[in-house]
Design goal:
Blueprint lengths: L2 E7 L4 H9 L7 E8 L5 H8 L4 E3 L8 H14 L4 E4 L8 H6 L4 E5 L11 H8 L3 E8 L9 E8 L6 H24 L3 E4 L2 E4 L14
Parallel strand pairs: 1-2, 1-4, 2-3, 4-5
Antiparallel strand pairs: 5-6, 6-7, 8-9
Helix pairs in contact: 1-6
The structure holds ligand LMY7XDAE and glycinamide ribonucleotide (GAR).
Length: 214
Amino acid sequence: MTCRVAILISGRGSNMASLIEATQAADFPAEIALVLSNRPDAEGLERAKAAGIATLAIDHKAFPDRESFDRALDAALNEHDIAFICLAGFMRVLSDWFVERWAGRMINIHPSLLPLYRGTQTHRRALADGVLVHGCTVHFVVPELDAGPIIAQAVVPVVPGDTGESLAARVIVQEHRLYPQALRMICDGTARLENGRVVFSRGWNASGALHSPG
Ligand SMILES: Nc1nc2c(c(=O)[nH]1)N[C@@H](CN(C=O)c1ccc(C(=O)N[C@@H](CCC(=O)O)C(=O)O)cc1)CN2
Ligand SMILES: NCC(=O)N[C@@H]1O[C@H](COP(=O)([O-])[O-])[C@@H](O)[C@H]1O
């Protein structure tokens, strides 16, 4: 059964593009049915239109508060019969009401090795701390920001002379590989949420490492 997915963006949309490309594969257990942005000028909307995907912009600035924006978001997702949400550079903190409504059916990619560097400016903060490895994480979304159960992670080295830009460029390559892998594992049941933790079947995890459970 193919899962109807919406991708929520706020800007460039390169992770959105990697998800759209991956779901073109005949055996991919999900289809991208909608790309939705809280910013009408988001570059990613044009990329989605060019890929033949339905798009929608709902400007958060047009709403008096966070929850009324989230209710409009929810209504639009239901109108498009969406079953699953991928946040991809979606820069709005979602209300508890919305997150609980989509619990276990909404994931996000974050540019750090969570739980390190929750929030924003992750690459600059990692460099400031002098860490030698960094990376990205795909996780289920819970009300507490960037605190949801982890589905997949990818690691990159921090090399001498790295800037926020050079580190971001190294991490985004891994994001584009990891997010489609994580979505496939959730939609084909290889990875599932159980009692607030992600459990894997068939002994694999999305970081490509074979781990022998137990
Ligand atoms: N309830 C949750 N909402 C969201 C989560 C989450 O885990 N729980 N993940 C984020 C994504 N994200 C980090 O990955 C993130 C997005 C936005 C912000 C933020 O501070 N946003 C500001 C506005 C910034 C702007 O509009 O440019 C805000 O919403 O006031 C931090 C982290 C998605 N939502
Ligand atoms: N806090 C969320 C966050 O920082 N997400 C990050 O925003 C970028 C969006 O790029 P994209 O629009 O090209 O996919 C990505 O690096 C993603 O990890």
